[in-house]
Amino acid sequence: MLGSLRSIVQEVNSARDLPAVLRIIVTRVKQTMTTDVCSVYLRNVKKEFVLMATDGLNVEAVGRVMLTKGQGLVGLVAAREEPVNLDQAEAHPNFEYFPETGEERYSAFLGVPIIHQRKVMGVLVVQQVKGRTFDEGEEAFLVTMSAQLSGVIAHAEATGALVDIHSDAGPTEAKFMGVAGAPGVAIGRTVVAAPPADLRAVPYRRCDDIEQEVVFFLEALAQVRANVRLLGDELANRVNKEERQLFDAYVGMLDDASLGGEVMDRIRQNISAEYAWSEVILEHVTNFQSMSDPYLRERASDVQDLGGRVLAVLQQSNQKKIVFPENTILIGEELTASMLAEVPAGRLAGIVSVRGSSNSHVAILARSMGIPTVMGAVDLPFTKLDSREMIVDGYHGSVYSDPSRNLLLHYQDIVDEDLQVVRTLESLKDEPCETTDGHLIELWVNTGLAADAVLSLERGAEGVGLYRTEIPFMLRDRFPSEEEQRQVYREQLAAFFPHPVTMRTLDIGGDKALPYFPIEEENPFLGWRGIRVTLDHPEIFLVQVRAMLRASEGLDNLRILLPMISAIPELEIAQMLIMRAYEELVAEGRKIALPPIGVMIEVPSAVYQARELAARSDFLSVGSNDLTQYILAVDRNNTRVADLYRSFHPAVLRALKDVVDASHSQGKPISICGELAGDPTAALLLMAMGYDVLSMSATNLLKVKSVIRRVSLIDAHELMLEVLALPDTESVYATLDDAFKEVGLSRMLKPIVPINR
Ligand code: PEP
Ligand code: MG
Questions:
Q1: 162, 404, 570, 704: most buried, per Cβ within 10 A?
Q2: Is the CB of 181 under 6 A from ligand 1?
Q3: What local confidence, expressed as pLDDT, does residue 18 receive?
Q4: Where does 525-679 have alpha helices with state H?
């Protein structure tokens, strides 16, 4: 049954819409379990379970039979949230008879709940005429099936909320949930960003000129046909007859009259060649995948491969440049830093990514740019939402496509209010960050893009606590040379002079990949990342350090920070390499001051050795983003566990406090440069813990300053002690909420206007 399970899931994954998904499930499950009936019931908005698809019962009953939770056997499965397996269904007290289904003949009943994100969204049922108990293996199969399909059904349901793209009726508002990635609200028009040659990520676009589109398509087809033929000729002597025939079959498939014909029919319905092609290919892939002959089933991947080749040619030769509107909302499956960089300056208003979570690096980048962002919008049918009006609510993690006028007005009010708050805060730019009882704390910024410097200085930043050097590396197609790096670093150092600039050595791996230096690992966050990569490649490390040191000549405001240190020898080797680079430069006659060298505290081992690390370095800086993920064992990039990623978890808070004490015990300053520092509530706690510097996205700086200026260190200290004694995150939130309400600061914490939706 395992093989069938895989092939059913595969088939369902390629289905186009909810009815197709359900149709595949009922027919294939019925077939695999050799039973008489398979049906799916789904929960509607009124929380009734409606028969949505069946293979075996009367099809007229579809959409008509509805049961509430607890009603009938289906309702019982939903209420109990576990399988119900009966050999004499009619004898069960919950049995309810619906004449329109014709189910009186079926005695055996096995129903399992379909659960998505902890909610029962439906029930999957198999039935059989003869009284029979479905055995344990069958029950386990159905449970596995349901668990695997729940996400696909949820996704298809959400997609179905949109109007069919081929219909003439206008689009209707639809809401999708994700997690808040960067605060703020954006209203704009979508542009789909997709990786090249990915058949499942092609945005639905219409074509303006049908005849021109047909010509364009035929040319691409001819080009791939010629390439495949050429490949076939080259391999002619090396492959056997059957394989040679396979090549000929491919060339045949690329015939104008074969796949090409189907695509042209769709282009004639005004659909772009790229979308039409991907649609046709995916349909054929599904057909091949559902074939019972294993040889033919295998051919699905050949069709897919061929499809990808033609798509790549179509995309390469498509001269029409993507138009980025004034208020671009960039949407896509997995957005990357370079995709953001493609949007012309000033046009990027909002971001929505199907994958990732609030601590993915794209979200961090978005926060530093002040772009409202929603991450992990898993049900967003992004390919069908190109060039549509969209609202991105980066406070609540919600997204609305084709919003109604009322909703637009509602959100426009929030945008206006936000603007007002920013203007009010601007007056604080040159004020010190000082509590009411005279305690001063420095607010620095995290940077990475050249544009960050301007915004940071406008907001009154007193230094850079984290310059993420990997960002300029990510925006290129090869490692930058020493001189190229020197110029980029010099710009940062000069922009902030005389303030200090903390440059972190290259921190790649995890979810930060360089396009020209791919690292593929099973467990990337526990693998080759940060200092581990650069110590294994001293040539990269030395060039970078030399570039930093040379850039600081005459300015002397550089600090070097080492990421992902998990053991003392890593620090010692890095220090030794830095000294080597320094001595080389001095020997070359350059007058450079040796910069302070600091250690990032990002992993539990560094927390426990903070004292030793502080003793051997010049400063510590906590990376709370990684520290949270490693203390809680929650992948910061995984949407499924995004709810468990909590920097206010008591274990994280206690680690943060211990690290400050360890650093100060060695007389060394300590800063924090994770996202937590930019949260006004956390900032108060961190200040009270004793952090010397808080480093954050420039967009949060004035908000944090305004909160700190309104409290006393004594009160913050008392609050911190109270919070550190609490047992769970919920009580931490509640205590902080109350404290902020008491001093009238809750306005700084939450989105401005409550939304009752
Ligand atoms: C951190 O981990 O908190 C940090 C600042 O580094 P990054 O987010 O770039 O991994
Ligand atoms: Mg980190």
A1: 704
A2: no
A3: 81
A4: 531-536, 538-551, 568-587, 604-608, 610-615, 624-632, 650-665
Token pair for 189: 């028009």
Report which protein residue has its CA nearest ligand 1's atom 1: 623
Buried b (16+ CB within 10 A) or exposed e, 484-523: ebbebbbebbebbeebbbbbbbbbbbbbbbbeeeeeeeee
Q: Which 3 state secondary structure label does DSSP give 9?
A: helix
pLDDT of 159 reads 63
SS (H, E, C) 685-705: HHHHHCCCEEEECHHHHHHHH
Q: How far is the CA of 254 from the centre of ligand 2 (A)?
A: 48
Cα 24 to Cα 290: distance, rounded to the nearest angstrom: 10
User: Which residues does the chain have with pLDDT short of 50?
Assistant: 163-168, 750-757
659 Cα to the center of ligand 1, angstroms:
16
> What is the 8-class DSSP label of residue 560?
E
Measured CA to CA, the distance from residue 184 to residue 419 in angstroms comes to 10
Structure tokens at 306: 């061929």
Which atom, in ligand 1's list, is nearest to the CA of 361?
Answer: 8
Residue 615's pLDDT is what?
98
602 within ligand 1 shell (Cβ under 6 A): yes
The alpha carbon of 505 and the centre of ligand 1 are apart by a number of angstroms equal to: 12
What number does the ligand 1 atom closest to the CA of 466 have?
Answer: 5
Residues annotated catalytic, as ranges: 361, 673
Is the separation of the CB atoms in 682 and 704 below 8 Å? no
Dist. CA 12–CA 26, nearest whole Å: 11
CA 626–ligand 2 middle distance (angstroms): 5
CB 509 less than 6 A from any atom of ligand 1: no
Domains recognised in the chain with CATH numbers = 2-165 (3.30.450.40), 174-196+324-420 (3.50.30.10), 199-317 (1.10.274.10), 438-748 (3.20.20.60)
Q: Verify whether ligand 1 is closer than 6 Å to residue 471 (CB atom).
A: no
- Per residue in 600-640, pLDDT tens? 999 999 999 999 999 999 999 999 999 999 999 999 888 88
- Our answer on whether the CB atom of 636 is closer than 6 Å to any ligand 1 atom is no
Which segments within 338-460 are labelled E, that is strand? 348-353, 373-375, 389-393, 398-401, 442-447
List C-alpha distances in Å: 584 to 543, 549, 561, 579.
Answer: 12, 11, 20, 8
- For 205, residues 6+ apart whose C-beta sits below 8 A from its C-beta are 271, 272, 274, 275, 386, 387
Contact 225, 257 (CB under 8 A): no
Mutate to test the pocket of ligand 1, among 364, 621, 637, 693 (most ligand atoms within 8 A of CB): 364
Element (H, E) at 411: helix 405-426
**Phi, psi (rounded to 5 degrees) for 526:** -110, 15
CA distance 539 to 517: 14
